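Section 5: illustrative case.
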């Protein structure tokens, strides 16, 4: 079937198997090439493969054990964060780290070592994973954690599914009094004010995220809205919410039924959309449900179709904290790049974790959507060079364009990762369109 990531670019003809137990999954491994796929929320091609097989893991989604005293959960890796929320939020437990959509699997979150809005306080997803069972290319199943083969553990965290297939995971959830958040929106006039605002609120607020007006340049560059927040306690809730403090959300209320015509993507709609986003962000309610706080985009099902049939990509990079001037340069390149920069997020990430190919390190990260259009690849290539000059890197979980020459400068622990890959998968069974493209396989 024709398969794509969330960006609908690239779309590749893939052979897909959807096993519902481990035996069938192991039997479906194709020595010529195999890659696991979760819910396909990576934007580009890490869960695609043309010659070989794509193994959908969402049929392996059982909850195996839960300790209500510690929040320790053992589940199959195909379980989604949406299912975890549905089951455990009413009992007062939330995932400790979540990306901006709940329609992701635990396996996908480990393979991309995803980060959330509280990376500076909580680290990335792997920080809360105790261990996992991995199906190796040899057919052997091994349990890995920080004591049992730590090198394989850290090569698999952020390892893009290339060390083996995650079967079972033990991780910790977070105890909460309510499923609501306190938040505060701060309107900022330029980049200096934004970065200063983030640094000022960092210690007092675990959650922090900013939106900038991607069309603002010159002295207005970086104007936008910074939103900071924390978990709401029962006392923080207004009386009308106190009756159901652990409320869970339902399915998306609306959905984009088909790919919208590309006419919808033009400088006018871009300006209108950004003005609307700015207003919504600035007027944020002081107490908000996790759905609005973590997953505002999940409210519109299949919103990716809004970018039309050609699809889109998200370019996400991180540069060191001391490189604010280069961050400014990168934002200027994006604003003046002749493309249509749509949704965006700017955050400060906390210290780097031990995952060999894990994306986050302490610095400024910016993510921005671009519809696929002529000239985009050239702009992204120029941005890649500027990111490397700044000592930064691009996030593979969003990427669809990076070339092999960029991997070593962006990911200095690549050599260590390659050693583990050669040990556990010497014949290169686990590969993907992304791994072939960037030279990981
Ligand atoms: C709206 C939106 C917001 C997002 N926000 C963020 C964010 O804030 N932070 C962030 O870090 N990311 C974010 N992402 C990206 C997303 O969290 C990651 O791409 C995540 O990995 C997707 O999980 P998935 O289950 O869909 O995995 P897929 O996209 O299907 O696969 C991703 C990778 O995981 C591997 N994989 C999946 N399952 C297994 C398994 N069982 N064993 C081994 N490997 C496996 C695949 O091979 C692939 O390499 C966002 C994505 C969207 C669409």
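Designed sequence:
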């Amino acid at each position: 079937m024709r398969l794509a990531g969330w960006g609908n670019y690239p779309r590749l003809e893939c052979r897909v198997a959807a096993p519902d137990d481990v035996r069938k999954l192991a039997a479906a491994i194709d020595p010529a090439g195999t890659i696991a796929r979760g819910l396909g929320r990576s934007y580009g091609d890490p869960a695609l493969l043309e010659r070989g097989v794509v193994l959908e893991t969402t049929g392996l989604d059982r909850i195996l054990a839960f300790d209500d005293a510690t929040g320790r959960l053992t589940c199959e890796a195909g379980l989604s964060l949406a299912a975890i929320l549905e089951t455990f939020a009413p009992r007062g437990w939330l995932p400790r780290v979540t990306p901006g959509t709940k329609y992701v699997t635990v396996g996908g979150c480990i393979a991309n070592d995803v980060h959330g809005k509280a990376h500076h306080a909580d680290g990335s997803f792997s920080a809360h994973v105790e261990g996992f069972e991995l199906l190796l290319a040899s057919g052997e199943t091994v349990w890995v954690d920080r004591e049992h083969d730590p090198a394989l553990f850290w090569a698999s965290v952020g390892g893009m599914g290339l060390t083996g297939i995650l079967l079972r995971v033990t991780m910790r959830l977070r105890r909460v009094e309510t499923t609501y958040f306190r938040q505060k929106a701060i309107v900022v006039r330029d980049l200096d004010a934004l970065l200063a605002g983030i640094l000022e609120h960092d210690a007092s607020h675990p959650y922090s995220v900013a939106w900038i007006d991607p069309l603002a340049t010159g002295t207005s560059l970086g104007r936008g809205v910074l939103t900071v927040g924390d978990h709401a306690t029962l006392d923080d809730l207004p009386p009308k919410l106190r009756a159901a403090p652990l409320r869970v959300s339902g399915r998306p209320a609306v959905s984009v039924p088909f790919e919208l015509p590309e006419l919808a993507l033009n400088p006018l709609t871009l300006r209108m959309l950004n003005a609307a986003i700015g207003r919504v962000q600035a007027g944020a309610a002081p107490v908000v449900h996790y759905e609005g706080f973590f997953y505002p985009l999940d409210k519109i099902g299949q919103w990716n179709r809004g970018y039309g049939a050609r699809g889109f990509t998200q370019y996400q990079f991180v540069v060191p904290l001391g490189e604010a001037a280069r961050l400014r340069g990168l934002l200027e390149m994006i604003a003046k790049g002749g493309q249509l920069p749509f949704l965006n997020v700017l955050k400060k990430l906390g210290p780097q974790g031990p995952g060999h190919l894990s994306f986050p390190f302490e610095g400024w990260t910016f993510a921005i959507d671009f519809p696929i259009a002529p000239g985009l690849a050239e702009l992204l290539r120029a941005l890649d060079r500027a990111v490397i000059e700044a000592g930064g890197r691009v996030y593979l979980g969003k990427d669809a364009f990076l070339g092999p020459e960029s991997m070593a400068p962006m990911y200095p622990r690549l050599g260590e990762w390659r050693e583990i890959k050669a040990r556990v998968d010497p014949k290169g069974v686990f590969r993907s369109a992304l791994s072939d493209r960037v030279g990981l396989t």
